[in-house]
Amino acid sequence: MSVRKCIQFALLGLLLAWGQTCCAQSEYAWSTVPFGGGGYITGIVTHPADPELVYARTDVSGAYRWENGKWVSMTEQFTEKNFYGVAGLAVDPGDPDTVYMAVGKYPDQPCDVLKSDDRGVSWSSCSFPQTFSANGDLRAFGECIAVSPLDSNVVYVGTESGGLWKSSDGGGTWQAVAGVPESSPVRCLIFDGAALYAASYSGGVYKITSEHCEKIQGSPPAVRRMAVADGALYMAGAGLYKYAEGSVSMLPVESGVSYISGLDARGQFIVISANTGNIMKFPLYYSTDGGQTWNNAFRRETHNSTIPWFRDEYFSSSTSCVAISWKDSRRVMLGDWHGIWMTEDITAGHTVWTNPMEGIEESVPFWAVSTPSGARLITALADTDGARYTAFDAYPENVHDAPRLMSTTSIDFCEEAPEFVARVGVKTDNATGDGGYSLDNGVTWNPFPNFPKDENGAAYRGGRIAVSARMQDNGFPVLLLLTIGGPAYRSVDGGTVWTEITDFPPGLDQGYWSWKARIVSDRTDGSRFYAATDTGLYRSDDSGISWTKTAEDVLLSIKSDFGRPGALWGMDRQGRLLRSLDGGEHFEQIYGTSGVTGFDFGKGRAGCTSSAVYFCGYYNGCFGVFQSDDYGASFRHISAGAKNLYNEASFVTADRQEYGAVYIGTNGSGILRAEFLESRDEEFSEDFEKLTALPDTWECSGVSTVAQNQYNHELKLGAWISGSMEGKAVYKGVRLDNNVFMLAFRANNQGNAAGNICNVYFNYHDNSGRVSAYQLSLAGGEAGGAELRRIIGGESALLAVAETGGANKNANYTVEYQDGRIRINRNGIVIIDILDEMPVSSGYFGFEAVNTVVNIDDIQMTLPEVVLIDNVVYSEGREVPAALDAARGKELTVELTLFRRQAGTYGNVLYSVFDSCGRLQAAGFAHGDTLAADIPAALPEGCALWLYVWDQSMKPGIAKIPGI
Known about the structure:
With 964 residues, the protein is mostly beta strands.
């Protein structure tokens, strides 16, 4: 007996050689591109009872704990982007395990006070009603949280716009404290026994006890830091002040000090850092007599940096804080603009400093490029210029130089000659622009001989630069520069002469803090540039001289694909991806994308002629990083395990030399890096990450009112399919965008006898087309129960058991897909909960059949001879071979021989067909003689197909249809 099946499909896939798939099941390893800090450490907090317990906070990169010689992030798994700014830290002096954190980069976004009982491993919300500004002007002031050393339940929190608040139950509830003005920021708190001192920015320092709140007469305004030692309160601001025995006195410090930024004290030993006019280096002073005399700790010093690129000028730059060790007062840490430094003996005549930065990767990248040869990655960073990488196993040896920039705001290269790289940015004054070019792929740099200037002769600030894809006869590419606050310019001689582009389209001024590419070169046409403005998309076909509007679409970021002429992708105001294949004349939306923050094209997979496409954002409601090997027809989620991804992921740069490598810029946590790990064994590994932890048992109660001797099991999947069965089998399935579930409900209904079984099969296909089956067995009668098993290749693993007593013979079971989860309910009680990260799309198929199944070993598949298209992907606009054209509208058959288990019965086969990128193209239930249909007349691209069939145990049989 044979069954003919004609497979309905509409493909946008890739033709591959036998044994290859364009989307094989894979893993991605995530890490951070090693740079070595580079961001602002705004506070260091030590614990008086545990000398080795040290915490550090940052303005935009969360908080860290010192552990075993390195820093451990306490915030890398946060999913609220605003929580990566930490405005204050406080330890509980009575409990080393308890720590509090005030989180909130910006006050107009979610903020809170968080509490941890395990040294920052996990956190709980304290539901604090006010906001913080960890990246604001007062970020380097002292800690805005304090815990009473006499009562761990008493916690105070200062705010910048809401005054002082108190909790008497360990952060459970909060009350405003009267007497401290709300009109002035309360940014520094410290306890001395039962008394709390709170520094009001414009109102002086207040002393709060359980009885009263009063201002300390003579206390200075703008107090940045405070310390308590030997019954005295030290206050650092425009000078250093001491409050003792009811009066305030000013202590002598070195002349020329603008303000004191860091302060700590132990007994009569005091350490301060001071601004003496050079923000690149704040000197440290220490006193051994309570501040009466001072010693310069930087009279002679050596910097033993653990980071090769660290310049001496970075040492103690804009120092924000100092911390004296509770174990040894000579051991001192300082936090500054670029990291943390430590000395074992600050009193030595020649101090030796090292920067223990392992574990802290704090930087704000503006942009990065990956070139097809040479550097894997060249970065453009705020505050530290940027660096070049050929590997990622060590910190870079150097940062960019000549010109020396404080921040590189944009970088680009010539596609035809990637040894030419250009960058622009701002100098150390953060107001004057500059830039340069490299002729050796970023190893060395040459300053532009000139830089565009305004009518007053001042150089414009950096901006965005675009480099043409082709070199000119003079050895330079064409450079287009969009300045910040000024016009666009063009140079054809390496920046010697800049000519204003008078025809440049209006409505385009990005500002300084921008992570969008709104002016780009075409990667395949050396004379073409694009500009995405607020009035539409413009294109220049004469190297930037004249511009023509090609589309009304308002795009916030655009990129040209190096691998496909005329291909331009963009991102609109809703964060949706759009694609044009005709040079920006027409765009089509990439379905399912929203909230996209960046995208890029990387090296394609072996056997694929298309570039690999990556984006960061939402795909069908799921946030993460996604990759497509079929040019946007489908995407797979690749960011499981990525840390710090929610810290305002900005741009995406895909690797041009290695397939599967991609880089994600963040707003404070550096650049994240994903590395593709080659396909694992064809069976799923035991760490299948789409399953949540399941409890061992459930308590289920309640009995349906369904009549005796009748089972009524309802099968649901969202709002798409539902059905009931009474003594028969129902097989139904659903198509998802990337993942595919086929649901097979088989009922063995034989009255009320104990041990009756209903089997519910959930056949899960990941987006590479591999199969994993879930079987829910529902036992009837008095021995009732339910269990969930995962079956892969015939191997069965028990995942969960539900003990339901003897009532489930009349139970209602529902299977629902909602909010990214599969839930199995019995009489309304959830008994199975499976996480699936890819949401449901639309469409379903369904059918019914009698309950006869065959074993997979009894199935023989004979593949027909089908059209083979020379193993070439045929994209839109290319001529399709006549052989493929002749196959359109014809019937495709696959012969299946089903061996009968007994005379007079037919075998039933549950089957589905997937293209090479895992998208479901056809599914059904084969029984009897023939199931046939026609091939659709429209086949955009060639693709290989795979046929899966399952027997009663869900053991899959796989065959390939190798050449449609």
